[in-house]
Structure formats: structure tokens, C-alpha cells
Design brief:
Residues 1-24 form the signal peptide. The protein is α+β, with helices and mostly antiparallel strands. It has helices spanning 9-23, 361-387, 401-428, and strands spanning 52-55, 59-60, 65-71, 80-87, 90-95, 98-101, 107-112, 115-122, 130-136, 144-157, 171-177, 185-188, 196-200, 213-220, 223-231, 235-241, 249-257, 260-268, 275-276, 283-290, 293-301, 318-327, 330-334, 339-341, 352-354, 356-357, 395-396, 399-400. Helix 2 packs antiparallel against helix 3. The protein is elongated, with a radius of gyration of 32 Å.
Length: 432
Amino acid sequence: VQMAVPGTHRGALLLLLRLGLVAGYPSGRVTESCGDMVPRHGHAPLPDPVHSVTVARTTFTPGDQIEGTVLAVSGPEFKGFLIEARDAEDPSGAPVGSFTLIDSQESQLLTCGEKQGSAVSHTNAHKKTEVRVYWDAPDSAPNHVQFLVSFCTYWWTFPAGGATGAIAPPAYVSSCLASFLSSCLFQRLGLWEQEVLLRSPSACDPEKEGTCLFLSFTRDDQSVTVEMSGPSKGYLSFALSHDRWMGDDDAYLCIHEDQTVSIRPAHLMGRSHPALDSWDALEDMAWRLEDGGMQCSFRRNITLPGVKNRFDLNTSYYIFLATGAAKDGRIYRHSQQPLITYEKHAVTGDPQDVGASRAPPLLRAHGALMLVSWMTTVSVGVIVARFYKPVLSRPLFGESAWFQVHRALMLITSSLTCIAFVLPFIYRGGWS
């Protein structure tokens, strides 16, 4: 701010009056915004969110304390903010739980909905890129909790003007991001009996095992919430298919891009690159990156009339689950055979822990027969013919014993190889 020169006290006083209007709520006492989360600065919100929210983990039990981080991953730095936790089933309802501060110099507790400490806001107008707080789950917490966050970014300039050197009125620019960012979707532990689950290794716990590849479907009235997690620095994906082959499938991908995750529906046509579709059909999208692992979730309606390539979730499908590499938003072929369910399942059906395998029984039999024939019987047959002629020189059914053993092992090798060669064709139903 340019200092006023002598004789311009009136101009300086006018400036101070204007500053009171510009700063708006630099102290963070914004309890009047507790209900609708909309800042009272009198300025329209930006149409697209430019900030996101990450949390330490996405499951909780009543009484837990969970650390959350408000993180500006792109766009302008922010000066003001307001954070609340709500019941995900009733986001316009009263706040849920309370917060504990980590840095009281940057954040403060507010009383919203007559609950002390149920919201967090800023304490000053300094520029920020991160705010860290703890959220304390109440004993009577709902099944799903969602964070609502409003960010405010504002700045002002004070150009000098006038022949007398008086300070000109400030040029004020303000933008308030009043969008509700649903990137903190929590689910209570102990609800697996209400879900359709797919896990690898079977019965693994995604909360305790970093190598656990996990997919769950939870029905909620007319919609289904999907959650995926697993060890991947590229992408996680699952697909719903009418058969066990890739092609004409409804797929969903969580793609790691820089320090964010893009959640996109897609359509699989044969073994070609997936055709990414618009995310208009998805709601409540959330994600988290931690220690080489990825977690993402979203919600979609069970039926989507008129939406192309999206399947009706009331029908049974084979479920595919795959991971792979990604670079600059482009995905590459999955690194290993996808996990495929043994049979069709309805994701809106009865709760169950679904079994799946990366190798169907026929292909496992193919591999086992090839391994036995070319690593065992043929090798033993060659060793017998090379080193055991003197030892097995006695006649056996009209020939030397070593030759009979050698010939029997070679015949077994040929038979097993022929059977193993046919099995993939039986599995695929013909030539592929």
C-alpha cells in the first residue's frame, strides 16, 4: 500500500473505509455461511473448482480421529476457507463430528449448527496452499461422511492517482469458490456384509495390506457407490462384461495424472485402447494417493436411460479388475491378466465376497500340462537316453529297458502337449 503524503488524510481515511469492504471476512468469523457454505462477499463463484481435498484414509470407526489436508493442486492460492463434515446421505443437514486444530495460527474452530468445533475457517488473509486439521468422528456417526469445503481467493491493488498524490480507490478483484468438493468420502468399517466385494489376494484387508487389490459396490436406494483401491502408480480399472472376453464392455478407470487422479467412464471395444467417455454419469467422485497406492470412489445411478455405453446395474455381469501403467493421462495395456470373476454377478444383489482369478481353470490346466511335459517328462526321457543305457540295458518287452522308458516318456510328452494345445481353443470357443 502506498503511504499517504501530508495533506491527504481524507484520502487515507476513505481508503481505510474501502478496505473494510474489500477484506470482507479476513478474521474467518464466517458462521453465517455455516448452512449453505456460500461466502457472503457478494461475488459469484467460479464455475469450475480449482482446489481439491485429500485425507489420510477413507474409512473410520466412531471415535476415530482422521487427519485431512486442504490442498490447492492447481489454480490460485487461497486466503479464506470453510470446512465442514456432513452426512453424505443428507449433505444439507447439520454438521457431523468436530475438528481439532493442528496450526492455530492459520485455522480456527467455529460453532455451526450449535455444535462447538464443527467447522474450521481461516484466521487471517495470508496466502495459503495447505491447511491441515483433524476430524473427530462422533460415537453416533452416519455410515458415510462427506467433507464440504468452500475456498475464497481474493486480492487487491492500490494504484496511485491524482496530481496531489492522494491514494486512488482500490481496484478490487474477488472470486469465491463456493463449490462443494466431494473428494473426501468416508465409509465406516464393518459394513462389508452390505457390499459386493472383489479382492486379490482373497480375503485381504485393504486397510492393512498395501498389496490388496480391492473393489466394492454398495447400493444406496437408486444408486451404487463404487470404491477401488490397490498398489498402482498408473491406473486402476474395472469393467462389466456380458462374457469373459474384452469387448463391448462398460468400464471405469482411475488414472494417475501428476498429483491428481482422473476418474473416467470408458467403453471397451475388443482389445483396442478404451474409448473414454464423459463423466456426466458419475457423482461424488473422490480419490487419494498414498505410498504407491491409489484409492478412488464414485457414485452412479443404477439405471441411466439414454446414456450410451453405460450398463444397467440390475443385470448380472462378469467383473474385470485390472491395473496398468499411465503416462500424461494416457493408459497402456494392463501389466498382467485382469482379475475376472468365475461367474456373473449383480452388483446390486445380495452382499457377498466374490471369487475371481487371473487364470481360469482351463488355462491353468494348459499351463500345468505344458510344465509337466516340457520340464519333467521330456527332460527325464532325454537324461535316461543319454546316461542310463549301461544301467538299463536289460531287455524289456523285446527292447532295452532304457529305450522303453525313453519312448514312454516321449509319448507322454506328446500326449500332454496335444491336450494342452487344445485347451485354450476350448476355453475361447474356437479360433481367436
